[in-house]
What we know:
Distance between the termini: 63 Å
Number of domains: 2
Order of helices and strands: EEHEEEEEEHEHHEEEEHH
Number of strands: 13
Number of helices: 6
Strand content: 25-35%
Shape: globular
Helix content: 10-25%
Radius of gyration: 20 Å
Largest sheet: 6 strands, antiparallel, barrel
Strand order of the largest sheet: 1-2-7-6-3-8
Structural class: alpha+beta
Amino acid sequence: MANEKIEFTPIGYFRSSQVHPYEAGRQPDSHHSEGVIELASGQNFEQALTGLEGCDRLWIIFTFHHNQHWNPMVLPPRGSDTKLGVFATRSPYRPNNVGMSCVKLKRIDKLKIYVEGADLLDGSPILDIKPYVAYADSFPGSEPAWLSSSEKFTVQFSEAVSDDLQYLENHGLSQLRGFLLHQLEYEPDNSRKKRVKATDDGFVIAYRTWRASFKIIESGDIKTVAVEKIFSGYSAEELQAVEDPYADKKLHRDFLNR
């Protein structure tokens, strides 16, 4: 019955530096940092973890806790320029806000399960954990028809950009590298799906108060996004203003003055 309600109690919560929706991958990928599932205590979950250390990958069942509504039609992040029914996509805006993510298991420490490559946000309630079983879960070549036109780009950072990213990561900005990699590897210039603007000699993409300029280079079948510069999204006047709603102006000033 449509009005029947089913209640779940989270078995734990996901913790990572991915706080904002645009920081998480569109799907699990290698661009994102390690996260940890913290299971609830006092539930005999220590016994439930027996044997899990022998798994290479896990399915994580969770809820999209930021989403309070659903949409019957959604625009996928890549592959289709027209809206599709939500059941034909992996969109988080679902009638029941349940998600699943296949992650790589790194280690287990008591009630903490360390994983990498997750597309979950910090604070995501965890409903269940299951082992990935290749013979049952893998169907190579099977994918939605609307993904067939999606072309993958190789994202390259200049030496200066690599140095800038390392500096920012050393000073607490840990998600910019992964953001650029997963935002630019498909449809890098699609301004309908991401904060991208064309410039006289390329494009600029926005990440919070930071900006990155890039060019698209196509040579035969080889498609490359060359990220050439990382710079502040603040003007000089804005950096001098007292207001600091994102609490990051000091990092911007240090970045510019280093």
